[in-house]
Amino acid sequence: MPISQALVTRYFQLIVSRQFTESERELERVKQKMQKTEWNRGYFRALYGMYLSRKNSATDDYAFFSKLDLSDKVTLHTYRKEFLEHMGNGLHGDFDRGYFSAWADCMRIIARMDVPASTNGNGKAAGGEEKIETLRTDKSQATIANFLAKPEEDKEE
Hints:
Elements: H1 5-16, H2 20-33, H3 38-55, H4 64-67, H5 73-88, H6 94-112, H7 144-149, H8 152-155
Helix pairs in contact: 1-2, 1-6, 2-3, 3-6, 5-6
């Protein structure tokens, strides 16, 4: 029996929205419905790795998910093509092809999702720095950005 795309889609949606308890349950459902083949083992290991990577992305600067801009559709499609090339490569074993297939599915599903722009889902911008929101119209909020942006005539007041 092939892997249920509905379960996998739900799983990807849950890890992107950082709902780890529910995504862990969904991952267990996927595991129970899988046949024990090398391809499925690779697919599952990729899913589990995505879960761990996403869960620890705030502390792991080297994780793929922490560097990925989930709202950049072009980059997601590029990664998907690359994963599909690896999946179709005859030099890879079944485990590896299953692994790359899971990542290709992940990129396809995330590209279809409406993820807020320029964040990777953990409150940080895709480059790793936190986004700081300032209100230039709020006179009580003094920030360097507000100070530097003022025209010269405003500084005399």
